[in-house]
Amino acid sequence: MKGLFITGGTLWSGSAFLRGHALLVCGERIVAAGPEESVRAAVPPGTTELRLSGESVLPGFVDAHIHLTTWAKQRSLLDLGGARSLDEALDMVREEARRTPPDGWIRGWNYNETLWSGRRSLKGPDLDSLAIPNPALLQRVCTHINVANRRALDLTGIDSSDGVLEERDAVHALRAMEKSVFSRRALLEALKTACAELASMGVTCVHPCGADDYGMEEDLSLYEELRAAGDLPVRVFSYHDAPSYPAMPSGFGGDWIRYQGLKIYLDGSLGGRTAALSAPYSDAPSTCGQLNWTITHVTDMLRTARERGVQTLLHAIGDRALDQAISCISTVDAEFGPARLRDRVNHLIVCRPDQRARLAELGVFCDIQPSFVPSDAAMAPPRLGPDRMKWAYRWRSIMTECGPVSASSDAPVESANPMHSLGALLDRPGMPHSPEERLSLEEAIPMFTENPYRAVGRSDGGRLTEGCLADLAVLDRDIRGLTGPELKDVGVMCTIAGGRTTHGGPLEATDGPTSEARVICPRPRVAR
User: Fold this and answer.
1) Do residues 379 and 142 lie in contact, with contact meaning Cβ atoms separated by under 8 Å?
2) What percent of the residues of the chain are helix, what percent strand, and what percent coil, each to the nearest 5?
3) Which whole-number Å values give the CA distances from 178 to 77, 79, 158, 304, 359, in the listed order?
4) Which single residue of 21, 75, 283, 342 could bond 382 by disulfide (Cβ 3.0 to 4.6 Å)?
């Protein structure tokens, strides 16, 4: 298309939805936005017109924290999310072994023992009891716990009495399994399919988080190969859990693929009881979780990042991990002054009021996962107890006290569909306490559009404004006033990234200088 003129929709202004407004896209940018009459006057000949009937038009969604390559790979592996007991999970592994050659790996993921009758955790001897010849490695839904059978332990030289591998202990088994299961060509195809599904959800930009120490790498050359073939519908701003070599500053790359920063995993997960709490778990008084690094090591990593011009993203789920993040950032700020690109802290599930105040003082950019609320509703209260639950999952408080917040899916831990996350922000399903922490739709949308761009130091994305990137999502209805459950059923009519239709196209125009476009696609399927 020479250009695209969008009329008749309900357009997001940045703070509200407006009728009677229009957009003009030329190339990779929005060149005009505002009242339809004024925008129409700027439309050049040959422009395609997309005439809507009130459907909502938003900036393309941004997933500010996703393990994209891992999500892409796991979709072809054994999904244990449907198991409702330990026996059901083991039956699924047994059946998978029947379909797999004796020397082939059994790779399962997404099990969640908190949903099982009895809630007993999976252990290696449970897998050994199946007497299958295959090496087997199963990953908990949080990705921070893996369980291996004896065959997998022997093949990888890992010493474990119960086969339970916490945090980075599983990396050798994960890499051995991946080498056996995924070729580069298979990875490319998996990524291509996953990115196309993201586009079908209205996503136009992602912040993938690599975790080499957890066997969850992100390889930028894969994205570049997809881009060269015309198969990359999303912008990629990536974080990695090891310093780049050779050294690169944040922002190295182009508008579509860039190195963004260093991810530091301070602790683990609440579900796996590896999140670092300042007092013992209420349902396991013998443990407070664990910190992955000493305060000296974290400070050194932050110091090196500042010297190289690298933004950091710190994973902190427990309040003890958040104390460590605040202490280390404060120390490095005192030495260097505030960073050009502010440090980001991810998750903040257990965040005390005093910690919110310190985060605000430091100017840290916070990133949350709204879908953790319904997923953790049954698990979190017994883990934390009533007093700590008063501090937990306080999204409105963090937004109000700490400034702009970005939101994300953390897929494959949660659904990658942004509509699910938006619904969780509105309704907080499953957590009746703290109803004042619910957000309105208008408050929630910037967390998935403009704010992730602000987090990486850019002002030209996530807004339907003249000069901004032509990344937008046309939904299949007007979403004003919808409830959280109703948002889950919203589909995407078409997605445009960089002025190019990435889902729901192609847009075809009839004859004439500015004629109506037709969206050539079936009724949009709602990605679950």
Assistant:
1) no
2) 35, 25, 40
3) 11, 16, 16, 31, 38
4) 283
- How many whole angstroms separate alpha carbon 303 and alpha carbon 328? 9
- The rounded distance, in Å, linking the Cα atoms of 505 and 204 is 15
pLDDT band at 168 (very low <50, low <70, confident <90, very high): confident
CB 479 within 8 A of CB 432: no
Q: How far apart are CA 70 and CA 222, in angstroms?
A: 13
Distance CA 451, CA 446 (A): 6
The residue among 140, 168, 166, 170 whose CA lies nearest residue 152 is: 170
Confidence of residue 183 (pLDDT cuts 50, 70, 90): confident
**Residue 511: pLDDT above 80?**
no
Q: Give the N- to C-terminal CA distance of the chain in Å, as an integer.
A: 31
Please say if the pLDDT value at position 513 is more than 80.
Answer: no
Residue 506 has pLDDT above 80, yes or no: no
Kindly report, residue by residue over 450-477, the tens digit of the pLDDT.
Answer: 999 999 999 999 999 999 999 999 999 9
| pLDDT at position 520 over 50 | no
- Largest interatomic CA distance in the chain: 74
Residue 185 per-residue DSSP state? H
Cα–Cα distance for residue pair 406/346, rounded to 1 Å? 9
Taking CA 526 as the corner, what is the angle to CA 503 and CA 12, rounded to the nearest 5 degrees? Answer: 65
- Element at 526 (helix H, strand E): none
Euclidean distance between CA atoms 59 and 250, whole angstroms: 24
Indicate the burial class of 324 (C-beta count within 10 angstroms; 0-12, 13-18, 19 or more). buried
Measured CA distances, 210 to 118, 213, 364, 403 (Å): 34, 9, 21, 26
Q: What is the DSSP string of 360-371?
A: HHHTPEEEE-TT
For the record, the structure tokens of 121 come out as 């955790």
Task: Give the helix/strand (H/E) hosting 407.
Answer: strand 405-407
Beta bridge partners of 47: 514
